[in-house]
Structures are given as structure tokens and as C-alpha cells.
Amino acid sequence: MDNMDTKTFYTTLEKQGTAEFRERGSKFIGYAFPLNSAGEFKEILQHIKKEHPKASHYCFAYRLGLDGNNFRVNDDGEPSGTAGKPILGQIDSKELTNVGIVVVRYFGGTLLGVPGLINAYKTTATVVLQTLPFIQKPIELKYRLEFDYTTMNQVMMIIKQFNCSIISQEIQLFCFFTIGIPVNRREEVLYRLKDLNTVTVSPVTGI
Fold it and tell me: What mean pLDDT is predicted for residues 171-186?
């Protein structure tokens, strides 16, 4: 995953999906989904836990962003390194980002051992990813805009013209937007926005 600064697109999942894998009585259910933030992941995980209140483990991994540092793995009570890392390994082997995978396990009475567990979690992650289409999305840089409501139409025109995404918006007499600007259009967009003297533009760091 080198030379990310030269890339203009990243690969992620188009939609969410699930798949099942069984091993010696244990049932593993894999959930894979596109993701925008750690907060969004927590919400999805809570929803999955509510859906499977009697499961024995909820192991997961996710990766966000392109710097290689924003990821998390969790073995949720399984022996260390047997669940979260194999799941993350499948995300990384497909060179995906902004993706989360949760594997729910119903214990079937037979211990699988460390190699068996690594294989089960890895296979479940592999199978669920095989069921889903990958898509390329433009790498975006996040900026915060502050502007007077009277400038709204001009700002929206620039956002649409350059395929920027609106991440959050607060519209009152004074408006606050967080937008994602495709990395290869950044200079043009910033030039056009700063040309509207009433707009304050500042970069947003982090996810």
C-alpha cells in the first residue's frame, strides 16, 4: 500500500453483505460493510449484537483511511491473534479500505484450537468478501466551509460541478459544511471557493 499520495482512487465495498461458514459444530456469520468512521462502526456492531444476543463471540476488524494507521482488531475473548488479525488480513489482501468485517460465532461444543480458529475466521472473512462487489471511489480531502446563506447556490454549484461529497451540513443564516473534495480536483475547487469572498475554507484533519 505504498505511494498513496499518488493515487486518486481507493477500493472499498459497494454495499454490505453476510455469509456463513460452519466448522465442527460452530457457526460463523460474517458481516462486511463499507464504513466512514469508527463511530459508524460502533453503531453497526451494536446492531449486530442485538441481532445475535446468544452468540459466544463478536470478533471484528476494520480499516479506515489511507495512511495505514487507522485500523482496529478485536478477538472478543478468543485466543489472542486468532480472530481480529486474520479478518484484517483479508481486508488488506484485497487492498480495501473504509471497510469493516464482524464475524459472529455460535460455539458448537468442540474446541477448534488456535490453527482451527485462525482458519475459521479467515475463511468467513474471505467468503463474505467474495459475495460483494468492490468499487473505486475518489480519494477525498475534507474541508470545512463557513459561509453566509445568501452564497448557498454558488457553493452548491461548485460542489456539484466537481463531484464533491457533503459529509455534514448545518444550514442557518450562517452555514457550516464539511465536504470531501476529490484529491485531483482540490486546487480548482479551493480556487473557486476562495473566489467567493464570503466563504471561509479550512482543512479537516483525521477521519
Answer: 94
